[in-house]
Every structure is written in structure tokens, then in C-alpha cells.
Write a structure and sequence with these properties.
Chain lengths: 89, 601
């Protein structure tokens, strides 16, 4: 999927299982919090662990981000970005 | 002294204790992290999947706590936004409701009749004005067909108008005749427009206003105009018509007096004479509606007229008549013909109201009308005539309208009878009122002002008056011939002239020769010549005591109503019968000069 963000940060979690994958994802989301919220950055997470996909997606959505999931040949790609709602304020 | 062994032992124990403590802490952290992970719907971890050092390295509590703070922040933002949206929506809803209330208030309180109907004519909505105009209770109209509440005469027009707009043509005028709940008709007119959605007509709006009163008023006005034109026409032909009638009537009278012919011929003549008199009365009735219609009033005894008119009108009827007339009734100033007509109208109505027979009671009494009396007549002395029947009566709602022009409850009524009566009584400075009880009968009250003069003595031609000379002035040959014939029969020596100029010359000549005229009968109007009004002025210059009688077919001329004011001493309306001519001449001959001088100008 294409994103309109200036920059995309990729987090490759292939080989990691939950909850380690979740921990890595949360850490990254916390670090990029400002840039993600403003829409400057999109986070692209790669994982092979099927269980991690809903866990990470739900956590990111609870934080107010929009999440799109794509399945590639051997792994999943989750793109987390601003939901744009904050812009409405 | 502590040995090395002891020291080692102490360190070993201390390490064990620390290891146990560390294990407790790690277990505690694992438990708490697992609780948080479950909250985040993540499978809990165990020591096999994640070693202690590795676990601590991830700073799980710190990481999750920061994430949770972000979740909380997002929840708060979401909540704020929702609160804001709810308040905005509430505002919009309030504004929408206000706007709807205002529109509904407008529509509900509009005087106009507002409806919406489906293209096939089902009523979807009708405002309050529709309900109140048609005397319906709310909810009685929605779902019904429009065509079930309009008159059959109006249905096709409505269908056409609705068909016109549903076919997408321009808004059209529509006139609807509704049948209201009480069976009367409400006429409304306005516009019909259609609403289209996706090119399909979904409903038709109708905005109408009640024009019933205006339509009725227009109808009344048209009737009144018709009436006026009848009056104008009657006024226009009255003169010629009455002259012709004088000729016909005169010749009929003469033929009868001569006594020639068989009894059946006499009967034919009598019938022809009656028909002429009816024709005269008809002209008279129409003239009442022409300008003025002033009665030719004479001091008259009402008792005789009451008996004559009532008995005449009741001939051949199964209605019994009772009279209760005060013995010493004073005379009243009336136009005999007009009052007879009023009585005739009242008696005919009464007779029709008592189709199975009954009693008609006629009373006459003097009545004083005082200053404070609610009657719309001048205070003074009146003769009050009461005509009561025992018929079907008049419904309460009809009673206030019975004197209105063209108001009638009879299938073949003209609606003019009581209007004429009302008009005549008004012209006599009197009045007519009615009271009725349905099923019991109806009573009419007539008030006629008591005359200041005396009833002229009964015309009894004396021997003295015979062979007196009478001059007749009229431009109609037939009238002159009849008048001369009448005069001959009455024992007078008659002479005739055709204009005022000739009359003045003849009057002067006869006086100079020593054979003066005892009386002069003059037509009021002579086309292209001197009429009676001017001629009598000249004659009075010659002879202030001239006994002049004005004669005209225009009974509504002011001279006819008040002849003394113009120098005449008597009046006779054309057409006249021999008896009427005799009475008029006898009256002026027996008239003292005083009254003339007092009344002359």
C-alpha cells in the first residue's frame, strides 16, 4: 500500500513471536509517537507470527492509529499511520 | 574468631537469600506483565519463551505503561470529539425542531386551506383550516379520497387539475366545491402544484382559499343588478304600457257599461278587464324596484282594504278567515294598490303554508310607538295590522332572511314577495316584522302611520255636478277617447286637448266665454310639449282655484306622490277605471280651497 507520509520506518519482526513482537512494536510506537500522530511518519511492521497480527493491530488502533494489514508471500505487513482524526480538531 | 568456613557459609546463605528474593521479584514482574498482556489480548509469556534477563531487557512495564498512556490519551480525544459531536447534533436537532414548529404553526394557523394528496387523489395531509371549514374532527380526512368530499359537479374539474400538474405541466388554478359535514357547499379556489422525486410525481400540494362568501355575494349582486335592470326597464316602458292599458281597460269598461251583448260576452269582458288590472299591478310591482317607487298616498280606511284584499286573495281556498278590526280605526296614509299588494303577498304565503286548511286571522288596532321603543320607526300613532296563520311556520334559521331579495323556501317562489312588502312598508314610513313557531304558524305585524287628514267622502256624484265641463289633456289619442267616453258616462261634458299649451288656451277661452271648466285632468309628461307640471302653474296664474288632477303612468314620479305640493288637487294613476275617474273628479270638486292654499307652494 502507498502512504502519503514523508517517511516510512520499517520494523522487521520476522522470527519473533508474541509477546516479544508486541513488545518491540509497542516500543517503536512509543518512540515514534509524535511523528506518527502528526502524520509525518508511517510505521511498517513485518511479522511472520500469525498471532501477533491482531494483537499488534488492536494495540495500535486503541492508541488512535489507523492500521492496514497486507499479506505477502511469507509474512504479514502492518502499516500503522495517523487516523487523521486529530486533524479535525 | 570467625572461621573462613563460617564466612563462606554466611556468603552462601546470603546468595541463596538474594537469589530467592530475585526469583520472587522476577515472578512478580512476570505476573504483572502477563496481566497487562492479557489485557492487551496477547498470550501470556512463560520462562521458556522469554528468559528473565531478556524480559527485563524489554522494560515491559515501562513500555506497556507508555502505550497505555497513549491509549488513554486517544480515548480522551475520542470522548471529547464525541461529546462535541453530540452537542452539535443536539443544536442542529433543536434548530430543526424550531424550524419545523414554525412551519407547522404557519400551516396550522393559515386561513388558507392547505392539503397534500397523492397523484390518485388520496389525502395525505390537511391543515386545521380544512377541518374547521368542512366541520370535520382531526384525523377524519387522512387516507380518504379527495373526490369523496367534493361535489359531483366539481369532481371532474379537480381530476383535470391534478392530472395537469402530475403530468409535469405548470401550476394550475383549481376551483373545488367541497361538501361539508353538514351537507352545505364550500367553494374554494387556489393553486395545485406537484412534487417530483426521481422524475416521478410523489404528491400534489393544494393551497386554496374559501371564496364561498364572495361567490354568494357576487350572486346576490348579480341578482340585485338584474332586479335593478328590471326596474329600469319597467320605469322605461311604464308610461307607454300604462297608456295602452288605459285604452284597453277603458274600452272594456265602456263595453260593459253599454250593456250590449249576451251574458257570456259580459263575462268575457269582465275577465279581460281583470287581466288588464293584473297587468297594471305587475307593472306597479316592478316599478317599486325602480328608483323611488314612491307610493301615491291618500288618507284611507284600512278596514275596507283588509276585508277586500284578504277575501279576494283567499277565493277558492279551504282557509277560513277571521277579522278582528277595531271599530274606530283612524285612517292611514297609504297607496291603496301597494298595500293591497302587500296583503295579497302575505295571504298567498299563508294560504300555501296551510295546504290542509286552517284559519287566517287578521287584526287591526291602533298602537302608540314611544321614544324608547326598539322598533325602527318614528315615534307616533300607528295602525298595527296582524296577519296570523296556523300553517307550517318558518324554521328559526330562515326567519332572519325572509325579507332578503330572492330568498325563498318555495320551489317556484321568486323570493320577491316579502321583499316587495318590506320595500312598500318602508316607503310608507312604516314597517313589517314576522314571528314564527315551526309547526304552529306565522304572524306578520304591519305598522302604518295614522293619517293627519280625513278619509275623503265616498264619491257620490250629485245632480249638481252633472253637466259640468271637464278638460282632459293627454298626448295619447286612445287615452283621450277613453277619458271622454268615461266622462260622458259619468254625466260630464268632456273636452280633450293634446298639450299643456292647448290646455291653457282652452281653459282661458272657456272662462272668457262664460263656460269655465270645473276640473282639468292633465298628463304629467308630454314628449316635445308642455307637460302637466308646467301647465298647472300657468293655470293657477289664470285661476288660483283651478281644480287640476294629475294623471300619469309614472306612479313613481314625485308629483304623483305629493300632487298638492305642485299645485294639483288630485291624482289618478293610469290606467284607471271609470269608478276611479269618477271618485277623483268628485274629490277635487268637493275639495275646499283652504287645503290647497295651505299645501301649495
Amino acid at each position: 500500500m502507498t502512504t502519503l507520509q514523508d517517511r516510512t520506518v520499517e520494523l522487521d519482526l520476522r522470527g519473533q513471536v508474541c509477546p516479544v513482537a508486541l513488545m518491540h512494536s509497542l516500543k517503536k510506537l512509543n518512540t515514534l509517537r509524535g511523528e506518527l500522530s502528526s502524520g509525518a511518519v508511517a510505521l511498517r511492521i513485518l511479522t511472520e507470527n500469525r498471532e501477533s497480527v491482531p494483537t499488534i493491530s488492536e494495540a495500535a488502533r486503541n492508541m488512535g492509529y489507523a492500521v492496514a494489514v497486507d499479506r505477502e508471500e511469507a509474512h504479514y505487513v502492518l502499516v500503522v499511520e495517523s487516523s487523521g482524526e486529530e486533524d479535525d480538531k | 574468631m570467625m572461621s573462613v568456613v563460617d564466612e563462606n557459609e554466611r556468603l552462601r546463605r546470603e546468595n541463596l537469600r538474594l537469589a530467592e528474593e530475585r526469583a520472587v521479584f522476577i515472578r512478580y514482574i512476570r505476573e504483572k506483565v502477563n496481566e497487562l498482556l492479557v489485557l492487551m489480548r496477547c498470550p501470556a509469556m512463560n520462562a521458556d519463551t522469554l528468559g528473565d534477563m531478556e524480559l527485563i531487557g524489554y522494560d515491559p512495564i515501562g513500555t506497556i505503561s507508555v502505550s497505555f498512556s497513549r491509549v488513554l490519551e486517544h480515548l480522551k480525544e475520542t470522548n471529547d470529539r464525541l461529546v462535541r459531536e453530540i452537542s452539535e447534533r443536539a443544536q442542529v436537532e433543536t434548530a430543526l425542531k424550531e424550524s419545523e414548529d414554525r412551519l407547522r404553526d404557519f400551516i396550522d394557523n393559515a386561513v388558507e386551506l392547505i392539503l397534500s394528496v397523492t397523484p390518485d387523489g388520496r389525502i395525505e395531509y390537511a391543515n386545521r383550516a380544512v377541518l374547521s371549514t368542512l366541520s370535520l374532527t382531526p384525523g377524519k380526512l387522512e387516507g380518504r379520497s379527495l373526490y369523496s368530499i367534493v361535489t359531483s359537479a366539481s369532481e371532474q374539474g379537480c381530476r383535470n387539475a391534478i392530472g395537469h400538474v402530475t403530468a409535469g405541466r405548470k401550476a394550475g388554478r383549481i376551483e373545488v366545491e367541497f361538501r361539508d359535514n353538514r351537507g352545505s357547499c364550500v367553494i374554494a379556489e387556489g393553486t395545485a402544484t406537484a412534487r417530483f422525486e426521481d422524475g416521478r410525481c410523489v404528491w400534489v400540494r393544494m393551497i386554496l382559499h374559501d371564496v364561498t362568501a364572495r361567490k354568494k355575494h357576487e350572486e346576490e349582486r348579480q341578482k340585485a343588478e338584474k332586479l335593478e335592470s328590471i326596474g329600469v326597464l319597467a320605469g322605461g316602458i311604464a308610461h307607454d304600457f300604462n297608456n295602452l292599458l288605459t285604452g284597453i281597460l277603458g274600452n272594456l269598461s265602456i263595453a260593459r257599461v253599454r250593456g250590449a251583448g249576451a251574458a257570456d260576452v259580459q263575462q268575457n269582458l269582465s275577465r279581460a278587464e281583470k287581466a288588464c288590472l293584473r297587468a297594471r299591478d305587475l307593472t306597479q310591482q316592478l316599478l317599486i324596484f325602480s328608483k323611488g317607487g314612491a307610493p301615491v298616498r291618500k288618507a284611507t280606511s284600512i278596514a275596507d282594504i283588509l276585508r277586500e284584499s284578504v277575501e279576494f286573495s283567499l277565493r277558492g281556498s279551504n282557509v277560513r278567515c277571521e277579522f278582528d278590526l277595531q271599530d274606530d280605526l283612524p285612517p292611514v296614509d297609504i297607496d291603496e294598490g301597494q298595500i293591497a299588494q302587500v296583503l295579497n303577498n302575505l295571504v298567498i304565503n299563508a294560504d300555501q303554508a296551510m295546504s290542509d286548511g286552517g284559519t287566517l286571522r287578521v287584526e287591526a288596532r291602533t298602537a302608540e310607538v314611544g321614544q324608547g321603543d326598539p322598533l325602527p320607526i318614528r315615534p307616533g300613532r300607528y295602525v298595527r295590522v296582524t296577519v296570523s296563520d296556523t300553517g307550517i311556520g318558518i324554521p328559526k334559521e330562515a326567519l332572519p332572511r325572509i325579507f332578503d331579495p330572492f330568498y325563498t323556501t318555495k320551489e317556484k317562489g321568486s323570493g320577491l314577495g316579502l321583499t316587495t312588502a318590506y320595500s312598500i312598508l318602508r316607503h310608507h314610513d312604516g314597517m313589517i316584522t314576522a314571528d314564527s313557531e315551526p309547526g304552529e304558524g306565522t304572524t306578520f305585524f304591519l305598522y302604518l302611520p295614522v293619517s293627519k287628514g280625513a278619509v275623503p267622502g265616498d264619491a257620490k256624484p250629485t245632480v249638481d255636478s252633472r253637466k259640468r265641463r271637464v278638460l282632459v289633456m293627454d298626448d295619447e289619442e286612445m287615452v283621450r277617447e277613453v277619458a271622454l267616453e268615461y266622462l260622458g258616462h259619468l254625466g260630464y261634458e268632456g273636452e280633450a286637448v293634446v298639450s299643456g299649451e292647448e290646455a291653457v288656451a282652452a281653459y282661458r277661452g272657456a272662462r272668457d266665454e262664460g263656460h269655465p271648466y270645473s276640473a282639468v285632468i292633465m298628463d304629467l309628461t308630454i314628449p316635445g310639449g308642455m307637460g302637466g307640471k308646467e301647465a298647472v302653474r300657468r293655470l293657477r296664474d289664470l285661476d288660483p282655484d283651478v281644480r287640476a288632477i294629475v294623471s300619469s303612468g309614472y306612479s313613481n314620479d314625485p308629483v304623483m306622490a305629493d300632487p298638492r305640493n305642485f299645485g294639483f288637487r288630485g291624482v289618478i294613476a293610469k290606467p284607471y277605471r271609470i269608478r276611479e275617474l269618477g271618485e277623483a273628479i268628485d274629490q277635487v270638486l268637493s275639495d275646499g280651497g283652504d287645503a290647497v292654499r295651505a299645501g301649495s307652494t
